[in-house]
Amino acid sequence: MLATFDPAPSALSLLLRSRELSFLMEAHDALSARIAEEAGFKGLWASGLSIASTLGFRDSNEASWTQVVEAVGRIADVTSIPILVDGDTGFGNFNNARIVARKLVQAGAAGVCLEDKVFPKMNSFVGDRHPLADIQEYCGRLKAVKDTCGHDLVVVARLESFIGGHGLEDALERAHSYARAGADAILVHSRKSDPSEILSFCGQWDNSRPIIIVPTKYSTTPTDVFRKANISTVIWANHNMRAAVSAMKSVCNRIIQEQSVAGIEEEIASVGEIFELLDYQELDSAEQKYLPA
Ligand code: SPV
Ligand code: MG
Fold this sequence. Notes:
The chain is α/β, with parallel strands linked by helices. It has two domains: about 10-240, Phosphoenolpyruvate-binding domains (TIM Barrel), CATH 3.20.20; about 245-290, no CATH class. It has helices spanning about 10-15, 30-40, 50-55, 65-80, 95-105, 135-150, 165-180, 195-205, 225-230, 240-260, 270-275, 280-290, and strands at about 20-25, 45, 85, 110-115, 155-160, 185-190, 210-215, 235. The chain has an eight-stranded parallel β-barrel with strand order 1-2-3-4-5-6-7-8, surrounded by nine helices. The model has no long low-confidence stretch (mean pLDDT about 95). Bound molecules: sulfopyruvate and magnesium ion (MG). One of its GO terms (molecular function) is phosphoenolpyruvate mutase activity. It holds the Pfam family PEP_mutase.
């Protein structure tokens, strides 16, 4: 029998499988990604909500998959930490999902997260209409992505059972099916303001796959609660984008009221910081090396 090729696990795979609780920080463009990496985060979440928002779209598949891939490509170009991409539902059936996944690998993604809803999805915090995908159909999406990308892409299956109001039994049945279909990790989502749904799921889960959570709505839960529940990874899913909105609103209001930028100059990043963040120094050295004097 031929030995199966077992490549070294990717950095994202190691993060998800580590015994320590891991954190992924939201990025929606190259600048936010660079800032997250400089702050010390070991991995990024390319958020669908945030990428859509910065493009002026709603998080309901108004942005095309090529726009998402392009945003991921820019993030990958300026960072060296792994990127887990929010692939929504995979933009259609198994065929759309595997095409998008292949393009994400080419763009530099380390993983994709697919949610078990149907295209076009709606953001999980908006309204009550969140029809779930048929389990077998969704498993086909996972398998197609696995077969297409293999070890080049970590595949995260995202459970929307609680979002759709279907409860713990449905979540567990789906999670087991998705693990059998090849998911590398399970993201369990909840929009309650306390972690009760998440903890009920963790209490019943067999730990055959790492669990990822997105504590946007249950934001006041102490992080130690997640550690004790054996959760692998926490995603801070939209906080760079929301911070940018607050900061931009504040600075616009100040400038329009004061008809001057004098008052805010000390409170915002200097242009020098921007040059440093995007490594203008490297361009200077490259010019000396490649441009004739
Ligand atoms: C995102 O960041 O786009 C997510 C998380 O999918 S949520 O907005 O909570 O659905
Ligand atoms: Mg999303």
